[in-house]
């Protein structure tokens, strides 16, 4: 009888111990299942499509190895899209940083009253509230040959005739870059403003006691304190900007004559215009590899700061 009771107690103890160990995995399980279903499985499928040819719905699609990668990497159109993406991304990220930093410094300045500060905050954050479709329609109207921008340029004699900003090969990439800069700077502004408000006032007082000017305080106090935020925001912005699709597709569609063709629009056209899903998957994998490299640096920078 005693042995039976002992066995029951040990069985209950073992089951409760097992339940305690399994509980954390039970909480994580729903998220893990979603990640596997929505991320891991699609990525594996895209990689499998990139090393095969023919219809992606066919079970007998022949294995081609790295043939698709070699074909894509020797395609001038791919490198044109990669170059445009590089110019578009670098210009956007640098401008986002400079404009966001400038506006955040202004909004954090004591020279600005509380009411004007609140008004400027609302105005400056507006581009971040608009959807891509609204931004595209707005800028198509502004940059129309008969739009406001051309009217002002002609009024001050900076342009002799209307400029087709989205239709001129010499101006289209500049136009979509400016549009993306306008749409994305509030993210930097808000993040940097939060960082500025977290800088201890004692550091500025110590710098003033040492005789540092306003610019020297900016270089020796403000920038070092904002450095982690700047690095994090820049890496995230690189990831987001290289994958920008909606603004490009809704304004130029990658044209004219491919001067605004980005890797995102190039991949989309391979899949849904040329119906070459294998090459589209190959292009997507290459973009994924680049994104993973940037993501690894981002994670490492976050760990080093923590």
TrEMBL record:
What species is this protein from?
Subtercola vilae
User: Cross-referenced InterPro entries, in alphabetical order?
Assistant: MetI-like (IPR000515), MetI-like_sf (IPR035906)
- Biological process according to GO: transmembrane transport
Name under which the protein is recorded: Sugar ABC transporter permease
Q: Name one GO cellular component term.
A: plasma membrane
Q: How does it sit in the membrane?
A: Multi-pass membrane protein
Family, similarity comment: Belongs to the binding-protein-dependent transport system permease family.
Q: Which residues form the ABC transmembrane type-1 domain?
A: 82-298
Residues passing through the membrane, by range: 25-49, 81-107, 119-142, 173-194, 277-299
Please give one Pfam family short name. Answer: BPD_transp_1
Question: What CDD domains does the record tag this protein with?
Answer: TM_PBP2 (cd06261)
Report the locations given in the UniProt record.
Answer: Cell membrane
Q: Where does the UniProt entry say this protein principally localizes?
A: membrane
What's in the keyword line of the UniProt record?
Cell membrane, Membrane, Transmembrane, Transmembrane helix, Transport
